[in-house]
Amino acid sequence: MVASNVQIALRIRALSAEELLSVPARLQKNVLSTSPFAPNQVIVQGERKQVFSFDNVFAPEVSQKEIYDRVVMNMIDKVIEGYNVTILSYGHASSGKSHTLGISDGVSYTRESKGIIPRAMSTLISYINSAQYKKRKYSMRISFVEINDEKIIDLLSEDNDKIKPQILIRDESNGQILWSGLQEIKVNSLEEAINILSRGMLNRQINTSRLNDRSSHRHTIFSVTLSQQKFIPVNGDSVNSSNLSPSMLSSKQFSGSKEINKQYEGDWVTVTSKLHFVDLSWKDMDKDIPKSIILPISHVISNLGKKTEEVSETPRSISNAQNCPPILKEYLGGNAKVLVISCVSPAAFQVKETINTLEFATQARNNKDTTVIHQEIGWYNVEHLQDLVLKLRAEVKTLQENGTNSLNTPVNEKQRRRSSILANILVNSNILQNEKDSTNLDDKISLASLDLPKILEGETLNQGLGPIIEEYEKSILSLENQLSHVRAALAYSENALHLQEDKLKDTEETNKQNMHTINDLKNHIAKLNERKETTEIEEIESRDDMVAELGKKIENLVDEITYLKETQTSDSTNSTNSFTEQVISKEVILESKVTITGKEEESEVSNAELLVAIQKLHKRLAKFEEEAMQNQQLIDTLEATLIENEDSLIAANKKLSILQNREDGLLKQIKALNSRVEEANDETENAKSDLFSAKQTMERTLVEERKSKENLKFQLKEARNEVENKKAEILLVKQEEKKIKEKAEMSRITLENELERLLSKKKKFGCF
Ligand SMILES: Nc1ncnc2c1ncn2[C@@H]1O[C@H](COP(=O)(O)OP(=O)(O)OP(=O)(O)O)[C@@H](O)[C@H]1O
Predict the structure, then answer these.
(1) Which domain covers residue 491, as residue numbers?
(2) Helix (H, G, I), strand (E, B) or coil at 748
(3) Exposed / middle / buried, residue 400 (Cβ in 10 Å: 0-12, 13-18, 19+)
(4) Does residue 364 sit in the same domain as residue 490?
(5) Residue 94 C-alpha to ligand 1 middle, in angstroms?
(6) Fewer CB atoms inside 10 Å of the end CB: C or N, the chain?
(7) Rounded to whole angstroms, what are the CA distances from 189 to 74, 109, 198, 229, 463?
(8) Which CATH number characterizes residue 238's domain?
(9) Any idea which positions bind ATP (predicted)?
């Protein structure tokens, strides 16, 4: 069977409440996205867009339970089956590794948020106690260590252990890892297991504060060693190998230990399997940091999926924790089942670390794709078949040596060759059975079928089918790659289309708002215009009235002044003249009268009258003079008012010109606003048509991509059908092989009978 023993999952954690409070909103932006069309892919929007693929991708909302049920539960089944299992969480600091494993805070096996370790312990112990496994004897031991830059710390040793034994790890030549000085505590119940886990975690916390968290990388390993004893009755037959788990069959191929105690009625088989939980933790995961820190991590990840013998020794020289590499061999090499959970944060402020983690995971994923594990047993176990063939050969050889030369016949040689070919056919057909199809497999298979008799005559199937298998694998890989590329491209296009649609909606919304604003502005401008016009008309009218009034006033004043002046001049000249003349004439009359008085008595009365008249005339003169002064004052006041009014007229004119300027400015603003509105309208129309054509292009691309996806699906389906056909053909070949095998078996029996006959003949001859 061909299978991958490494699964790589990705877990994206949610932002913590603390991050939501302390990290600026701009840096909290989510840079990771998943798509329902490609559930195993994650898209990173860093400096550029990158797509990464995994076996499983868990979004932030996926619960601890769901992760456990989907990827961990079946690993626990494997532990019970006898496999070594390693569950490894890795990622940058605070990415959720410990939380995922269940060792970040107080452990409880009842809480819903509990992590993988408490859940796994619960499953293991319920298996052990279940009726199905009651007939087996179990023992379970737990160890808990931390490996930091400096050393290995046993997290289960009591604090008051004054003299702690030094922990040493030995890499045995048979691939086994031996720990010494490490406490392994036996547990019988879930409560005991959880108590031990809690104790270790407490010590871990104490260590963290003691070390002041200075170490650059600190890995925590919680290990469970499960020993299962199963009684297998012999009943005269050999142990039925198909009942045994892989680790019982070969300590080289499976790292569980083998111990068979033969008893009277059967065998007690002990199978030891190990379950490791590894929290690979390091700080400042960055490409710029010294290689000595980053290499051990990249080494672990890049060696995932490789067979034990392929795991390089490099980290020995680069890590202070000299014992680290052998541990990795046990955990990651050979047939160990490995689940890697890469933990990342979705936030923009950790995008660099996230990309590093994703790149490491991709590297590990690429390695695992080349890993092939053969688990066949019985007739489908290659080693078993080869052993059998070797055994048969040895038997025949012994017979040949012990028997007569007549045994070395062409029939015997043919039998040997057939056995060898049979083994090869079985190996190759097993591989083929589990492979998928290749595009031109048909021709090659038919060629191979033509060659089959030749192959049966001596050529191995490896030569005939090897290239077909290779090509077939390549085609399947390339088809799957193509499909995943198309899926990624489709997801990308759909994302882009959604983005464009969102953009279009946003632009339409903005347009609507702009239109509203433009309409509002237009209304506002119209109102302003209206108001301005009425105000201006009113102002101009009132100004005109004022000006007319002022003009009238001025005219009146001028008239009045002229009149007054004229009046004053004529009055004063006339009246003064007449008055003076009157006075003078009266004085002359008086004088003449006085002169005459001496001559005539009657003239004395008229003199007195004349004096009175002169006095009256003087009074009138004074009155005239006073009036003239008053008139002069009035003229002065009127002149001052005239000047004032002229000033007001100038100010009013100035105000008028300012208002006219303002009006011009407003008109200009209105014009500018109108042209801006027109420009915005044009831009909106252009953007609309651009978006519309972009949308149409995207839709066309999407349709084309969908078509090509359908085509690929169709091709894949056809390829799968062909695989099915090939499988059927292979089944036929296998049936043929079975017949050959039966024939071979019969030949062997005949051979044995012949041998027996010959031996008895020999005995007979010996007797003679
Ligand atoms: N999926 C998750 N859901 C809720 N909280 C989480 C999740 N992942 C991590 N946290 C929380 O985020 C914090 C950091 O997680 P955790 O300690 O597991 O990170 P870490 O990768 O082990 O860090 P370090 O390498 O520094 O030990 C913890 O308080 C943990 O409870």
Answers:
(1) 472-717
(2) helix
(3) middle
(4) no
(5) 5
(6) C
(7) 21, 12, 14, 18, 55
(8) 3.40.850.10
(9) 91-98
354 and 498 part of one domain: no
One-letter identity of residue 163 = I
Number of domains in the chain: 2
- Cβ of 99 below 6 Å from ligand 1: yes
**pTM, rounded to two decimals:** 0.48
Cα separation, 422 vs 429, whole angstroms: 10
Distance CA 343, CA 345 (A): 7
Identify the H or E element spanning 620.
Answer: helix 603-767
Task: Tell me the one-letter amino acid at 324.
Answer: C
Angle formed at CA 211 by CA 180 and CA 274, multiple of 5 degrees: 35
Distance CA 12, CA 57 (A): 8
Residue 665 confidence (pLDDT): 85
Cα distance between residue 579 and residue 621, in whole Å? 7
Same domain flag for 371 and 508: no
**Segment 717-720 long-range contacts (CB within 8 Å, at least 24 positions apart):** 719/436, 719/437, 719/438, 719/439, 719/475, 719/476, 719/479, 720/436, 720/437
306 backbone φψ class: left, alpha, beta (φ>0; ψ -120 to 50): beta
Task: Pick the closest to residue 489 from 14, 35, 32, 5 (CA basis).
Answer: 35
| Burial profile 313-332: b = 16 or more Cβ within 10 angstroms, e = fewer | eebeebbebebbbbbbbbbb
**Distance from C-alpha of 324 to C-alpha of 338, rounded to nearest angstrom:** 17
Q: In sequence order, what DSSP letters do the residues of 664-718 get, joined into one string? A: HHHHHHHHHHHHHHHHHHHHHHHHHHHHHHHHHHHHHHHHHHHHHHHHHHHHHHH
Left, alpha or beta for 244 (phi > 0: left; psi -120 to 50: alpha)? beta
Look up residue 307 and give its DSSP letter: -
Query: Is 104 touching ligand 1 by the criterion CB < 6 Å?
Result: yes
CB-ligand 1 contact for 93 (6 Å cutoff): yes
Classify each residue of 493-524 as buried b or exposed e, where b means 16 or more C-beta atoms within 10 Å of its C-beta: bbbebeebeeebeebeeebeebeeebeeeeee
Ligand 1, closest atom to CA 281?
25
Query: Which residue, among 147, 107, 135, has the nearest Cα to 276 in the 3D structure?
Result: 147
What does the pLDDT look like over 702-724, one tens digit per residue? 898 889 889 988 988 988 898 89
Element (H, E) at 41: strand 38-45
Closest residue by Cα to atom 13, ligand 1, is 94
Q: How many Cβ atoms sit within 10 Å of the Cβ of residue 581? A: 12
Separation between Cα atoms, residue 387 and residue 489, nearest integer Å: 51
Contact in structure between 250 and 154 (CB atoms under 8 Å): no
How far is residue 555's CA from residue 742's CA, in Å, rounded to a whole number?
146
Query: Are 368 and 476 in the same domain?
Result: no
d(CA 730, CA 738): 12
356 and 477 assigned to the same domain:
no
State how far the Cα of 500 lies from the Cα of 701, in Å rounded to an integer. Answer: 14
170 located within any domain: yes
Q: Is 96 in the pocket of ligand 1 (CB under 6 A)?
A: yes
- Per-10-residue mean pLDDT for the chain, 768 residues long? 72 88 83 84 87 91 94 93 87 88 73 89 91 82 81 76 60 60 88 91 77 63 88 51 39 38 60 87 49 43 46 36 45 71 90 86 62 35 52 61 46 48 45 40 41 42 51 64 69 75 79 79 78 72 76 76 67 51 50 46 60 81 84 82 83 84 85 85 85 87 89 89 90 90 90 88 72
Does a structural domain hold residue 430? no
Is residue 516 domain-shared with residue 638, that is, in the same domain? yes
Q: Would 440 be classed as within a structural domain?
A: no
Q: 60 and 374 in contact (C-beta within 8 Å)? A: no
82 Cβ below 6 A of ligand 1: no
Tell me if 282 is assigned to some domain: yes
**95 CB under 6 A from ligand 1?**
yes
Nearest CA residue ID for atom 16, ligand 1? 96
